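Figure 2 data, in text form.
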Amino acid sequence: MPNTTTSYSFNKPVVGGDDNTWGGYLNSNWDSVDNLLDGTSTVTGMAITNAALTTPVLTGTPTEDVYAISGTSYNVEPDNGSIQTWTLSGNSSVSATNMAVGQAITLMVNDGSGYTISWTGVTFVGGSAPTLATSGYSVIALWKVASGVYASYVGDVA
């Protein structure tokens, strides 16, 4: 009787045992691998990093990383998370030189005291940066196309 692998229960024939059964075990294992690769069986528990996926289909709700920014100067870093929050502690500055083409984030700024943000290298839809709400969050979407980083004021959240 073979042992099986933990994740997908592939058969592992006993070395020196299981005479005349290896072929059946291997055929079964390869059928299982084929089903995983062609989508017949669901692949679970696998992290995919830096892969180009063509027309992926997501089932369920993806979980996005939420990152809390600190300080008064920030260079937008999408690798920190696609949703970023920032409670201002003084007048602040933002640049976006770390963004790559196609990257986007949602920035939620909690001002609370009438502070301002100066934006370097960011073009706002409509021509100018928004006035921040003094209570709750001001939500700003940022994205990069070609060599430009663009932003749009989404609105305020109490």
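Caption note: The first strand starts at residue 3 and ends at 4.
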